[in-house]
Design goal:
heterodimer; A: 111 residues; mainly beta; six-stranded mixed sheet; B: seven-stranded mixed sheet; four-stranded antiparallel sheet; 11 strands
Chain lengths: 111, 117
């Protein structure tokens, strides 16, 4: 079993839709949970990170972590064509360690 | 300020050849990471440097892969006797010294796209 499983997509939604992206993980030792966004032919960039269970909001983005079920989600409200990218969930054991990524979900928001 | 830069942006080589991929981290960043991303997959960890030394090289797939960071800044990933299966995007990331507060963000470069024919 992979340490991080992510719905591969691709996912296509109309502009303005609410998008839900999900990951499950197997190792309860993970401490930090993050979402990265990767545009085509670019490196990943950090969208959000969280440490504890619960919700964290940043503008149109909400990250949700449920440590009891080892499940994390990213919600995008009022999706825009500029949100079209691959979204990667990632986890880390501690501050300085390696990132463990899911396989990524390719999102396309159609105008 | 300048982000992480990687050269070359694209590299095409023949099976069996040797290649070097270069990473220039953000100035002042002490930690440097290499990842490999195959098509349709998330990045996979290769090696992590803290300063000049490799703190974790558990992701290097075999002894054909080697990385150095001799002065604690620029790093070079070296691949010997390349194979077609080595074709991927090689990503470098750097992060600043840890402050003990939360996640120490890794900043990624654009990657080097390696194609082995």
């Amino acid at each position: 079993q992979k340490e991080v499983e992510q719905d591969p997509g691709p996912l296509s939604v109309p502009e303005g839709a609410i998008v839900s992206l999900n990951c499950t993980y197997s190792n309860s030792a993970f401490q930090y949970f993050m979402w990265y966004r990767q545009y085509s032919r670019k490196g990943p960039e950090l969208l959000m990170y969280t440490y504890s269970s619960g919700n964290k909001e940043d503008g149109r983005f909400t990250a949700q972590v449920d440590k009891s079920s080892k499940y994390i989600s990213l919600f995008i409200r009022d999706s825009q064509p500029s949100d079209s990218a691959t979204y990667l969930c990632a986890h880390i054991y501690n501050q300085g360690g390696k990132l463990i990524f899911g396989q990524g979900t390719e999102l396309s928001v159609k105008p | 300020g300048a982000g992480v830069s990687q050269t070359p942006s694209n590299k095409v080589t023949e099976k069996g050849k040797y290649v070097e991929l270069r990473c220039d981290p953000i100035s002042g960043h002490t930690a440097l990471y290499w990842y490999r991303q195959s098509l349709g997959q998330g990045p996979e960890f290769l090696i992590y440097f803290q300063g000049t030394g490799a703190a974790d090289d558990s992701g290097l797939p075999n002894d054909r892969f080697f990385a150095v960071r001799p002065e604690g800044s620029v790093s070079t990933l070296k691949i010997q006797r390349t194979e077609r299966g080595d074709s991927a995007v090689y990503l470098c990331a750097s992060s600043p010294p840890g402050g003990g507060k939360g996640y120490n963000e890794q900043f990624f470069g654009p990657g080097t796209r390696l194609t082995v024919l």
